[in-house]
Design goal:
Elements lengths: L11 E8 L10 H17 L2 E8 L3 E8 L4 H19 L12 E5 L1 H13 L1 H4 L14 H5 L9 H6 L5 H13 L16 E2 L2 H8 L3 H4 L6 H7 L3 H4 L8 H13 L5 H8 L3 H12 L7
Helix pairs in contact: 1-2, 12-14, 13-14
């Protein structure tokens, strides 16, 4: 069974979602939502997260969080397990509350922070359970616009995108969210169900992901997105010692998921030769001409 690749590093930004098992509701009453927010607040503090936005729907939640340490999995595991324990105790339930592992998309901050925060707080409007973001109690929208000095979300960074003056920034943020109703979801640009960002951002991640790219439990689409270019695998691609070339052909196809056609085209050798090398390498013969 495949599992989502986890990309974790300091100051990474994520859109996180977790859904109820079999689409069941994960909040049955307001006290559940208050308890979840308490657990979220404790998790943010304990794991040095920065929370920019959240929204609690009936059977799932959305978070926009930044990790100051490379600890997203540990943090969300704590959040979900603590809340699930409370929920099962409170409502006399047994079994899993959440459906499998949480889902996390790594986000390019410069391009998508404000867009995704808007998307998150507009979830109730798109679901037709609120007329506007301000009408829904269980998202970070009103907290971001509030004058209160105590907040779960770090609104200073978010509002800073809309101006230096607090009042002006709040008004511009409110207009920005209001104008987002009916617009295309930024999540349509997600690559391999894993990364939201341009090619430069994806390229910057490849250096971090060597071990995960070799993990065959990870979906092929995610491994392919972050795999090394053939040029990096074969170095300059010409004049290679046959033994080294053959090892790299095997590695490119087996570990990095390149097709034999892609490898043969890159090296300028026939596909039949690549196929013969693959078979011989698997049989333990490294010196195939």
């Amino acid at each position: 069974m495949s599992r989502q690749m986890r990309i974790q590093y300091e100051d990474a930004l994520y859109h996180v979602t977790a859904r109820g098992n079999n689409k069941q509701d994960i909040y049955l009453e307001d006290s559940d939502r208050y308890r979840f927010l308490e657990e979220l607040s404790e998790t943010v503090e304990k794991f040095d997260l920065i929370c920019y936005a959240y929204c609690l729907m009936s059977n799932h939640y959305h978070l926009m969080v930044q990790t100051q340490r490379a600890n997203l999995s540990e943090a969300i595991h704590r959040l979900n397990s603590q809340y699930a324990g409370y929920f099962n105790w409170k409502h006399e339930k047994i079994g899993h509350l959440f459906q499998g592992r949480f889902h996390a998309i790594l986000v390019q901050r410069e391009r998508y922070l404000t867009e995704l925060c808007k998307y998150i707080v507009l979830n109730p409007v798109r679901a037709h359970i609120a007329r506007s973001a301000a009408d829904y109690r269980w998202s970070s929208y009103n907290e971001t616009c509030s004058l209160s000095s105590v907040t779960l979300v770090d609104r200073e960074v978010l509002l800073g995108h809309f101006g230096e003056d607090r009042k002006t920034a709040r008004n511009r943020y409110m207009e920005f969210v209001a104008e987002g109703c009916g617009t295309t979801s930024p999540l349509q640009g997600v690559k391999a169900d894993l990364v939201l960002g341009d090619e430069g951002f994806v390229k910057s991640l490849r250096k971090r992901m060597v071990e995960s790219v070799l993990d065959h439990e990870i979906p092929a689409s995610q491994r392919s997105l972050l795999r090394k270019p053939l040029g990096s695998i074969f170095e300059d691609g010409t004049g290679l010692i046959i033994e080294f070339r053959n090892k790299m052909i095997l590695r490119a196809c087996r570990d990095f998921g390149y097709s034999q056609i892609e490898v043969s085209d890159y090296l300028g050798i026939s596909r039949r030769t690549v196929n013969r090398i693959m078979k011989s390498m698997r049989a333990g013969n490294e010196n195939v001409p």
